[in-house]
Amino acid sequence: MGKCPNCGNKGVFLKTVNCKTCGKEGCEKCFIYLLSIYASIWDKEGYGVREWEKWYACSDQCLETFARKLQDQISLKDVSIHTSEDQIKELCLERGVESSANKEWISSGLAEKIANLGRKHKDEYLVFSFGNLDSPDEANPLNQRLMEHASELLKSAWLAEAENLEKARRFEEAARIYEKYAMYEEAGRARAEREEILVKRTEVSVDLNNLLQQLKDGGIVATYRCPHCGGELKVDKDTNVESLKHCEHCGSEIEAMDLADFLRTALS
Ligand SMILES: [Zn+2]
Ligand SMILES: [Zn+2]
Ligand SMILES: [Zn+2]
Are 19 and 54 in contact (CB under 8 A)? Predict the structure, then answer.
């Protein structure tokens, strides 16, 4: 007969467990369940899912400490966040061999087991699950914490994407991402930038026509070097704005503003 040293719970098959944070001994009944580590592996029974470890905390405080450690050491690279229509459906901590290393909350014994995953068979992998593998426990306090953390990770990934889209001048797409996170001012700013560029483009093309006319009037022949291929583009009385949109040698787009600057210099 086993007896829990923490709550006194007795049972023939009673198995005691240790708190993941402080190491205190208790049982499944009196401790808070954190998560399970499953591995899909090949062993003498063939290929299958085996439960490797089940983690518990003795108190809310120890859960909190553990959750914080986990959060600090989980990045987007470690987590596959399954989403549908921008909503997080599932936070999957599927860990490969590399990302399990250097995590404080993974014991050296477990790290070794993880490191051996996939050595003999490529299809071996590890899954961290909150509760049953097939039906993860959404009410699990640790799961909730990590889901919130995952939303934050996802948000920062989307915002970084929006920044890149702005750099690529895809302002409307960036604005839509800002809107999704209720960042209306940012969305407005991105859209305003788009309008500004449209206006600038029109101004520049009017400008370009003027500049070409001046070039013709002055009988000037200028040679513009394509910034992409270095090819020479002759600008003379027969050149029109349309033919200067793309490089005749490499086909890349020619930035109208750069061209206008060049013509202004040629005329001065
Ligand atoms: Zn504890
Ligand atoms: Zn107990
Ligand atoms: Zn070119």
Answer: no
